[in-house]
Amino acid sequence: MVKAQGLLDKIDRALNKAENTANKVGSSSEKAGRIGGKINNLIGKKEAKGSNFEIQIQGIKLADLKSLSTGLETDKKVGEVKMKFNSSVSTLQVIYNGESDELFELLKKKSPKITDESVQAMEDNSISIKL
């Protein structure tokens, strides 16, 4: 009986240690998440906030599309940019915190090939451009 009680005590201590370790890991992961959020705020990385815009660009080269996509990602009002290349019509899905006319002005700043004359259509959440 004494040996059984000793064994149960050892198991109980091992379970307590495992539980304490699990609690420490949970606490550490919460702290890491908070620290990661603070670091993102410090370096200016933004969460994806805003409306989803679709920009269709006819006649753009892949290198120019990549450059435009990268340029858009540096703007604070842009949350995320997804790119799809096609030799006839390429698409950028942009989460942008603003209006379509503001996004078009940003596009003109990021690519000198995009001008007022190149726009085909501009609606609430979409812009069509022909180069």
Task: Provide an overview of this structure.
Strand 2 and strand 3 form a beta hairpin. This protein is an alpha+beta fold. The radius of gyration is 26 Å and the shape is rod-shaped. The model has no long low-confidence stretch (mean pLDDT 83). Helix content is 49%, strand content 24%. The protein has a 5-stranded mixed beta sheet with strand order 2-3-1-5-4, covered by helices on one side. It contains 3 helices and 5 strands; from the N terminus they run H-E-H-E-E-H-E-E. The chain has 2 domains: 45 residues; 80 residues, Alpha-Beta Plaits, CATH 3.30.70.
Radius of gyration: 26 Å
CATH fold node name of the largest domain: Alpha-Beta Plaits
Overall 3D geometry?
rod-shaped
Distance between the termini: 88 Å
Question: Could you spell the SSE succession in H and E letters?
Answer: HEHEEHEE
Supply the CATH class of the largest domain: Alpha Beta
Helix content: 40-55%
Structure class: alpha+beta
| Sheet of most strands | 5 strands, mixed
